[in-house]
Design goal:
This protein is an alpha/beta fold. It is built from eleven helices and twelve strands. The strands form two sheets. It has a six-stranded parallel sheet with strand order 2-1-3-4-5-11, sandwiched between helices. A six-stranded mixed sheet has the order 7-6-8-9-10-12, sandwiched between helices. Helix 2 crosses helix 10 and helix 9 packs across helix 11. The chain is elongated. The structure holds beta-D-galactofuranose. The site of beta-D-galactofuranose (GZL) has 15 residues, from helix 2, strand 5 and strand 9.
């Protein structure tokens, strides 16, 4: 009898210990998060990657423009991380400490976000991902992802190139920022589609960091190798393609003819290059994410549900369509 009571006591003590040893569910935030205090502005923290491309500038302007339209009820705190993840994490920690109501994050790379997103969750601050996705241990760590289908973009580029070259070409690839969702997925889509065409071969592939200058530098190096005949360039974004076009011209070749150029984004410079016959095709990746981002901000602030993923559509433009389309482009 005494033995049984001792056992019961031990079990009860163990359960009590577990209950108060931090195993309890996340405690709700004490401040910050979701709804602003009565009469106060909704405070939104936006961690932007940087200003590496004209696409990025268009995205920044779109989001800041939407905040400006709502300036009587929204305060936007903006941070430019110069493409460094540690600076984005610092910015998010600062937003959390300031008790913002909602965070918008354009994540420079896919991984390494769990700890800071857990801090935001602890404070009940919803996180909206724009433009690039992430890999996390628990997808409740972000509210929604608003981004294009990068695999489809890469696939479309490969399909167009295979058709244009009759399925026979040596291709060089200018990759976007290493570890970035857009770079990883565009490369996957392109390679998987190209694999269906045995005559299509990626003979060189290197990081151009989504930047015009670096795209030019990498293309110059590719062109110096006289042993490889280059038939086409696939650039993960238009800015690197525009850099490659400069390198091709500097090498005394005709871009768009001697070497085909295919890229993604659909920025104004790409349309100008297509009208000039120097770029052959670009797949649109719309950076004007401000309206969709603030639709999500307002829903979250009102405690309403949001879609986990919003796929931003885009279409393929080639030279034949460029002249008619360029006047209507918004970025
Ligand atoms: C795409 C975005 C990419 C663009 C580049 O959503 O992340 O980053 O394609 C930009 O131009 O630098």
């Amino acid at each position: 009898m005494i033995r049984q009571r001792r056992m019961n006591l031990a079990v009860v003590s163990l359960l009590a210990l577990l209950a108060f040893s931090g195993c309890k569910p996340d405690s709700p935030a004490t401040t910050g998060g979701g709804k602003p205090a009565d009469g106060k502005k909704l405070v939104v923290g936006f961690s932007q990657i940087g200003a590496e491309s004209s696409w990025r500038t268009a995205e920044t302007n779109s989001i800041r423009g939407e905040a400006e339209k709502r300036k009587d009820k929204v305060e936007l705190k903006f941070s430019d991380a110069q493409q460094k993840q540690e600076k984005q994490i610092e910015a998010l920690q600062a937003f959390i400490a300031q008790g913002v109501n909602v965070i918008i994050l354009a994540p420079v790379v896919k991984t390494g976000w769990d700890p800071v997103l857990k801090e935001a969750k602890q404070r009940n601050i919803p996180v909206i991902l724009v433009d690039r996705g992430i890999t996390v241990s628990d997808d409740s760590l972000y509210a929604t992802l608003i981004a294009a289908d990068f695999v489809a973009e890469g696939k479309q580029a490969a399909e167009w190139l295979a058709k244009k070259t009759g399925g026979k070409a040596n291709v060089v690839e200018l990759q976007g920022t290493p570890g970035a969702d857009a770079a990883i997925e565009r490369q996957k889509g392109f390679k998987d589609e190209l694999a269906k065409h045995p005559g299509m071969k990626i003979i060189k592939s290197q990081d151009g960091d989504f930047k015009l200058a670096k795209g030019k530098e990498v293309m110059e190096a590719f062109l110096k190798d006289k042993d490889s005949k280059i038939d086409a360039v696939f650039a993960h974004n238009d800015d690197m393609a525009l850099g490659a076009i400069q390198a091709i011209e500097d090498a005394g070749k005709v871009p768009g003819k001697d070497i085909l150029v295919v890229s993604i984004d659909g920025v104004k410079g790409a349309f100008e290059a297509m009208v000039a016959g120097k770029l052959n095709c670009t797949i649109e990746c719309n950076p004007l994410l401000g309206p969709a981002a603030f639709e999500a901000v307002e829903k979250l602030a009102a405690g309403k549900p949001v879609e986990k993923k919003v796929v931003v559509p885009g279409e393929l433009f080639e030279q034949s369509k460029a002249k008619d389309a360029i006047g209507g482009r918004k970025y």
